[in-house]
Each structure stands twice: as C-alpha cells, then as structure tokens.
Write a structure and sequence with these properties.
single chain; about 100 residues; mainly beta; 5-stranded mixed beta sheet; 4-stranded parallel beta sheet; about 10% helix
Length: about 100
C-alpha cells in the first residue's frame, strides 16, 4: 500500500488516524492519535501533550520500532488496550 506523505505540518487539538499516512518532520500538540493497522509511518516527528491509542492486536515489536523514530514530551502517553483504558501504558522515549 502506498502511503500518503505529509511533511512539516503542525497539528494542534486534533484527532488523527495515522492509517495510510506517512508523517515526516511533523509536530503534534494536544492531539489524539489513532493507530489501527501497520500501514503508517512517522519519522522525526514531535509529540507534545498528545495521546496515542494503538490497536491491541498489532505486533508490539513493530509498533515499538515505529514509536522510536520520533520525540515525545513527558505529558504524551501511549495506550495499547482500550478496554482497560488507561492501562496498560507503554513507555515512550523522552526528549
């Protein structure tokens, strides 16, 4: 599947589904990010005060690799199991 490329954008207070998109050098501030499949990419992005919700059935190793390609502040959180929200929380690498 070819991904739609989005570059150098700043998203604020939005809910964004990453499926089908490649984000490069984007900034997400106070956003809700939804990831429901592996057809996405983000590289050199920054997340501030955002929340990432990841479909629990997706492979954790591949998701972790994707997440490691960007920067997160301490108020950004990642959740993998919506049925037990807000647990379990996945640790993110801090800026």
């Amino acid at each position: 599947m070819e991904l739609s490329l989005i570059m150098n954008e700043h998203f604020e207070n939005e809910t964004i589904c990453f499926d089908g998109f490649a984000f490069q050098n984007c900034v997400f501030t106070n956003c809700v990010i939804l990831i429901t499949c592996m057809d996405f990419e983000f590289v050199n992005c920054s997340f501030f005060g955002s929340t990432l919700h990841i479909e629990p059935s997706l492979p954790i190793f591949e998701i972790s690799h994707q997440l490691s390609q960007s920067i997160y502040d301490e108020s950004t959180h990642c959740y993998r199991n919506e049925f037990e929200y807000p647990n379990p929380q996945l640790p993110l690498m801090k800026a």
